[in-house]
Amino acid sequence: MKKLLIPLALLALLVIAAMGTRGLGIWGDGSAEEFELYGNVDIRTVDLGFRVGGRITAIPVEEGASVPKGETLARLEATPLRTSLDSTQAKADAAQAELEKLRNGNRPQDIAQAEAALAERRAALAEARVDYERQTRLLNSRTISQSTFDVSEAQFRAAEAQVTAAEEAVSLMREGARPEDIAAAAATYAAAIAQRDRARTDYDDAVLVAPAAGTILTRAQEPGAIVPAGGTVLTLAIDRPVRVRAYVAEPDLGRVAPGMSVEINTDSRAEAYHGTIGFISATAEFTPKTVQTETMRTDLVYRLRITVEDPDDMLRQGQPVTVRLAANAP
After folding, report:
1. Is there a smaller number of Cβ atoms within 10 Å at the N or the C end of the chain?
2. Which CATH number applies to 45-77+206-238: 3.40.50.300, 2.40.50.100, 3.30.200.20, 3.50.30.30?
C-alpha cells in the first residue's frame, strides 16, 4: 500500500507543478492571452484667430461643419491693410529708383553740362587775368590807386576759385556716386522691401484658412465684431490622424514597444478598431485621474500614443477606450 501511495503523491506534485508553470513550458506559454490598457481618444483642438486686428466681414462656416485643409473660414475688412500695402510699395519703388540712379552713374548730358560750366569759368578766369595784369602795370606806373588794383586782384582770385570748383564738379560727375552712398541707398531699399513684405503679409492674413482638415467646434465671434490680433474667432477639432492616449503600468512596460499592433474597443461599437503604438514616454508619471484603470492611483505608469489605422465618425475625441495587446509581445 505504501508503495502505491508514493507514486500517487509524486503524480499529484507533478500535476500541481504543471498547473503552476503551464505544463513546465510544454504547453500553454501564454501567447494567446491578452492584457488591457485604458485610455481616451486624444482631444486635438486649435484656437484660430487673425494675426492682425480688424473688423470681421464674413464667417462662412457654422459650428459642426467639416472643413478641408485650406478652406476659408473668416475674413477681415481688407481696405486699411490694402492702403498700407500700397503705401509701402510706393516707398519701395522710390528707394529702388534712387539706388539704380546711384549705380548707373551720371548721364552724359549731366557731364556735358558740368564741362560747359567749367569752360565758362575758364573763360572768365582768362578775362580776369588779362585785367589783373593790366592793372598791375598801371599800379607800377602809379597811374591807378591801390584800391582800384585791389578790386581787380580780388576778381582774379575769385575767378581762379570758381575754375577750381568747376573742375572738381566735372571730376565728381565722371566718377559717379561713392560706394558708401550706394551701400546706404541699398540698405534703404532693403528696409523698404521689408516693410512692403510685412504689409503684404498683414494683407494676406486678413483671410483665415483652416490649417488642417477638421470640424468647427466653436464660433466665438460674428461678422461685424472688431477683434484684436490673436483673438479666438473659431475653434477647430483636428480629425486626422486619430490618436489614443493610454497608460501602461511599470510592471507591464516590457510587454509593449513602438510598432506593435493593437486592438481598440469602445462601448459604442462591437467591432474593434486597429492601431499601432507610435510613442512610449521616456519618463514615468502618476496615473492621471481621467484614465479609467483598475490599478491604484498612486501607481506609476508610462504614457503611450497609439495611432488608429481605421477610424470612423463613431470614434470621438475624448472617448474612453480599451486597448488590448498580446501578453507575450514584443
Report:
1. N
2. 2.40.50.100
Q: How far is CA 221 from CA 67, 161, 209, 224, 292, in A?
A: 18, 75, 15, 9, 36
Whether residue 272 contacts residue 7, with contact meaning beta carbons closer than 8 Å, is answered with no
- Cell match 466681414: residue? 57
Q: For the chain, percent helix, then strand, then coil, each to nearest 5?
A: 45, 25, 30
Q: 273-316: per-residue pLDDT in tens?
A: 888 888 888 777 766 555 555 544 446 778 888 888 888 878 88
171-219 confidence digits (pLDDT tens): 777 776 788 888 999 999 999 999 999 999 999 999 999 999 888 989 9
219 forms bridges with which residues in the sheet? 234
Strand partners, 274: 263
Identical fold between 30-42+241-326 and 45-77+206-238: no
Query: What is the phi/psi pair of residue 199, to 5°?
Result: -65, -35
